[in-house]
Amino acid sequence: MEEHISIAVDGPAGAGKSTVARAVAKRLGLLYVDTGAMYRTVAWLAVRFGVKATDENGLVRLLDEYPVEFRRDATEGTLAVFFQGRDITPELRSPDVSAIVSPLSVHPRVRERLTSIQRDLRKNTGVVMDGRDIGTVVMPDADVKVFLTASLNERARRRAEEFALKGHTVEESEIRDSMAERDERDSSRDIAPLRPAMDAHILDSTGKSIDEVVAQILNWVRECAK
Ligand code: CDP
Ligand code: CDP
């Protein structure tokens, strides 16, 4: 198999991209890159420094003034986000960050910055990268492209279960509404919208286990290596 294989996993919120991409990366010894965490990092900075999601100049200035570090965890093969020496990765999924991440992801200059970091990360290593525009914009030359979906109800149920495991009760209908709104915004923006690449494998994970989805992707990787 090619040494620097690249696998793109795109899809709507809660489709299982991070879970499955991380597992595939682990199986193949590749770096897992969660590009959503990068957009969430900009949102985290915006919340912390009081910059509005509509203020493109302000957001770009934040990235200039407060360089964040995406550090590779050698044992896990994942990236952790460090701000001024502190690991902020667990804070990236907070509700205030989630509320503004999609609105600020529409800005071309924010996307340019992050896309360039994402492309640099794959220079010397094989990757599994997940997001919204990986197969279409970030790695249009990826060896295997997967567009992972699931019904909105199932995606909302999965997220509600995640919250419940962490001891938080969040109404499934509330999660469903905010997911639907985010998907709509991500799919309808002018730049790098959420959509499958022409050559992507479409994989509907509704009713499928994580293992089944991982096995299917590994099959596609094997096929492409033949
Ligand atoms: O985990 P979840 O699917 O809920 O979201 P995420 O992957 O962490 O991404 C959060 C948001 O970042 C998305 O709703 C998009 O607005 C944005 N994003 C993007 O625009 N492009 C990417 N490649 C990744 C994320
Ligand atoms: O990254 P994305 O927002 O697409 O999804 P995620 O953060 O990986 O969350 C998906 C949730 O659904 C996790 O709790 C998984 O355990 C669960 N799940 C899955 O990922 N794939 C399945 N086929 C079934 C459940």
Bound molecules: cytidine-5'-diphosphate
Number of strands: 8
Structural class: alpha/beta
What count of structural domains? 1
Q: How many strands, what sense, and barrel or not for the largest sheet? A: 5 strands, parallel
**Order of strands across the main sheet:** 2-6-1-7-8
| Unreliable stretches covering 5 or more consecutive residues | none
Quickly give the CATH architecture.
3-Layer(aba) Sandwich
Strand content: 15-25%
H and E order = EHEHHEEEHHEHEHHEH
Estimate the helix proportion, in percent: 40-55%
By CATH, the superfamily comes out as: P-loop containing nucleotide triphosphate hydrolases
The residue-averaged pLDDT reads 94
CATH class: Alpha Beta
What is the overall number of helices? 9
CATH topology: Rossmann fold
**Gyration radius from CA atoms, angstroms:** 17 Å
**What's the shape?**
globular
Report how far apart the termini are. 8 Å
Biased composition (Basic and acidic residues): 173-189
Subcellular location: Cytoplasm
Family: Belongs to the cytidylate kinase family. Type 1 subfamily.
InterPro entries: Cytidylate_kin, Cytidylate_kinase_dom, P-loop_NTPase
Provide a descriptive summary of the structure in words.
The chain is an alpha/beta fold and 226 residues long. The protein has one domain (6-225): P-loop containing nucleotide triphosphate hydrolases (Rossmann fold), CATH 3.40.50. It has nine helices and eight strands. It has helices spanning 17-28, 35-49, 56-65, 95-104, 108-121, 134-138, 152-165, 172-188, 210-225, and strands spanning 6-10, 31-34, 69-73, 78-83, 86-87, 127-131, 144-149, 201-204. It has a five-stranded parallel beta sheet. Strands 3-4-5 form a three-stranded antiparallel beta sheet, with helices on one face. Strand 3 (69-73) and strand 4 (78-83) form a beta hairpin. Helix 2 packs across helix 4 and helix 7 (152-165) crosses helix 8. The protein is globular and about 50 Å long. One cytidine-5'-diphosphate is lined by residues 13-14, 18, 35-36, 39-40, 101-102, 105, 131-133, 182, 186.
